[in-house]
Description:
Layout: E1 5-9, H1 15-24, E2 28-32, E3 43-46, H2 51-60, H3 64-72, E4 77-80, H4 82-87, E5 97-100, E6 111-115, E7 125-129, E8 134-138, E9 143-148, E10 151-157, E11 160-163, H5 174-195
Parallel strand pairs: 1-2, 1-3, 3-4, 4-11
Antiparallel strand pairs: 5-8, 6-7, 9-10, 10-11
Amino acid sequence: xxxxxxxxxxxxxxxxxxxxxxxxxxxxxxxxxxxxxxxxxxxxxxxxxxxxxxxxxxxxxxxxxxxxxxxxxxxxxxxxxxxxxxxxxxxxxxxxxxxxxxxxxxxxxxxxxxxxxxxxxxxxxxxxxxxxxxxxxxxxxxxxxxxxxxxxxxxxxxxxxxxxxxxxxxxxxxxxxxxxxxxxxxxxxxxxxxxx
Length: 196
C-alpha cells in the first residue's frame, strides 16, 4: 500500500511539529489551508493553537464543509488541545463531546503529567498541557482513553481521536502512531467497500 496521506491544518498554531512527527512515522504529509488540500487525504490533524482563531480561519478559508465531508467519508481526524475544542459539538460537531476551554487554567497553569492511555501500551505518555481543555460531557458512544484528575483528556469516537494536550511537543510518537493505525484501518475498510 502507498504511504498514508495525512494533512495537518496549517491555519494557526503548532502544526509544524505535527508535520515532522508524522513524517518520521512514514506518512506522506501536507499542510492544509484550502478545501482542495483535503481531497485525497486519508487523515487530518487539527493542531493546538487558539481555538477561536482556528475556527475563524476555517470559516474564512471555506474549510468547514470540506472538513465535515472528510469526516462523513469515514476518514479519520485527530484533534489536539485547541483541535479538541474545534472538533466538539459546539464547533464542527465531529464527535459527541463538549470541551471546556482553558479548563486547567491559563498559560501560567501549564504543566506536564504522565498519563496511562488505552491503546498505546503499558508505559505512561508524558503529556504537555498548555491552556488545556478537558471533556466536560461526552456521549455513550465515546471511549475515554485517558483522564487526569477525574477529567477525560483523551477520547475517541469512531474515526475521531482527540486529546487535551500536545503530544507533538515530546519525542513520544505513540499517539500519532495510534492515529495512523486508525487511518490505515479506515483506508482499508474504504477500499474493501469500493471493491464489493
